[in-house]
Design brief:
Elements lengths: L2 H28 L3 H4 L21 E7 L9 E4 L2 E4 L9 E8 L5 E7 L6 H10 L4 E8 L8 H9 L13 E7 L8 E5 L16 E7 L2
Antiparallel strand pairs: 1-2, 1-9, 2-3, 4-5, 4-6, 6-7, 7-8
Helix pairs in contact: 3-4
Length: 216
């Protein structure tokens, strides 16, 4: 092979290697965030948490997405910060909770409770520890109610929920309430799944709720 031909081959190999490296770098930096970015469609055209509308002064933006059996897992954003998601590895089956300081907007804690095989006592004990002024974000995933008892339902109702008293197996539920608030605001959605009419588990799309909650 002539020297010029060898140089061309080497040059081509370097060009291919460079292209492969750039492609791998781009894929590596993008694939991990695809799932979460899909919840922030056209982020540059939207507002905090990817919401359609902006929030007025002294309000926090939020978005809560309930999980379904079709592969959609719970997601929560508060004041433009993702606080719970599959990428953060802090969501699971049952009821998913995020506690937020109602004055500062700072995250206090995230946790979840398995309502199919778990002990509802752990949920009751947790609800009793929530301090006044705390914002409580909840997203269900698969089963929010099998182990639910009257005490747990009452504690959730006291946070401002209108649906906690009648939650059922398979229901999709999202909620934002505040401990200790007398005039209960309603940030809540319920998608009821009927076991008789949905035998093949053809569940609907994920239940989403977004809005603005006043700062204390």
């Amino acid at each position: 092979m002539r020297p010029t031909g060898a140089r061309r081959v080497v040059g081509s190999l370097f060009m291919l290697a460079g292209t492969w490296f750039l492609l791998q770098t781009e894929l590596n930096t993008s694939w991990k965030s695809v799932a979460e970015q899909s919840l922030f469609e056209s982020q540059e055209l939207l507002h905090k948490c990817g919401n359609v509308q902006s929030c007025p002064p002294n309000h926090f933006a939020f978005k809560i997405v309930g999980g379904t059996r079709k592969g959609v897992q719970p997601f929560m954003c508060f004041d433009d910060v993702i606080v719970m998601s599959v990428m953060r590895n802090n969501v699971n089956y049952g009821l998913n909770f995020a506690l937020v300081n109602g004055t500062t907007g700072h995250l206090i804690k995230t946790t979840y409770f398995n309502m199919w095989s778990g002990d509802v006592k752990h949920l009751v004990d947790f609800l009793k520890t929530i301090q006044d002024g705390t914002l409580v974000l909840i997203a269900s995933y698969d089963d929010p109610a099998t182990k639910m008892n009257n005490e747990a339902r009452t504690l959730l109702t006291n946070l401002g929920s209108s649906y906690a008293a009648k939650l059922r197996y398979w229901d999709n539920w999202v909620f934002l309430g505040e401990k200790g608030r007398k005039d209960k605001r309603r940030f809540e959605k319920l998608m009821r799944i009927d076991e008789e009419t949905d035998k093949e588990l053809k569940l609907p799309v994920a239940l989403r709720m977004e809005g603005c909650v006043p700062q204390k």
